[in-house]
């Protein structure tokens, strides 16, 4: 089993609460899955089970709560703001790219439920990529976060 550590990610004077999983077999440069739950669900709602499986397959995994939810800061509590959630994804992606041992060019976005659509929104389409499906409870595939743009992706 992979080790999990608590992490904090700074964004606009607030803090995202998250977990970082590292694969047991630490390659010098491993891909990283960045994941979050739907609109207002918390990472404790079984995202750990998915993260452990990805880490067991050799990925680093960053799981986070949106601002206003869970271990993240922000008032009022339980505020759903899609624009802020997109910014939270951007902060989490930038954090993942900065981690030692993570290949910043091999970031995967994995959204649970409604956030699968957010992952599609945040990433430009590529013909060779596969996505998590918003219609099913499990992913139909993973989509690499390739080009950088607004969140530090290259164009």
Structure description:
It is a single chain. The chain has 155 residues and is α/β, with parallel strands linked by helices. It is built from 3 helices and 6 strands, in the order E-E-E-H-E-H-E-H-E. A 6-stranded mixed β-sheet has the order 1-2-4-3-5-6, sandwiched between helices. Strand 3 (30-36), helix 1 and strand 4 (60-64) form a beta-alpha-beta unit. It is globular.
Give a concise summary.
The protein contains three helices and six strands.
- Count, helices: 3
Radius of gyration based on Cα positions: 14 Å
Give unreliable regions as ranges: 124-155
Shape: globular
Report mean pLDDT, rounded to a whole number: 76
Distance between the termini: 37 Å
What order do the helices and strands come in, and which of them pair?
Layout: E1 4-11, E2 14-21, E3 30-36, H1 47-56, E4 60-64, H2 82-98, E5 102-111, H3 115-122, E6 143-145
């Amino acid at each position: 089993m992979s080790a999990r550590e608590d992490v904090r990610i700074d964004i606009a004077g607030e803090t995202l609460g998250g977990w970082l999983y590292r694969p047991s077999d630490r390659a010098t440069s491993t891909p990283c899955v960045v994941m979050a739950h739907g609109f207002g669900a918390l990472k404790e709602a079984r995202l750990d089970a998915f993260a452990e499986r990805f880490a067991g397959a050799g990925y680093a995994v960053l799981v986070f709560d949106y601002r206003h939810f869970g271990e993240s800061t922000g008032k009022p509590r339980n505020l759903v703001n899609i624009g802020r959630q997109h910014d939270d994804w951007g902060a989490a992606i930038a954090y993942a790219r900065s981690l030692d041992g993570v290949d910043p060019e091999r970031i995967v976005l994995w959204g649970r439920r409604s956030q699968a659509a957010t992952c599609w929104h945040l990433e430009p389409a590529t013909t060779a990529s596969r996505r998590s499906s918003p219609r099913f409870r499990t992913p139909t595939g993973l989509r690499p976060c390739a080009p950088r743009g607004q969140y530090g992706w290259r164009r």
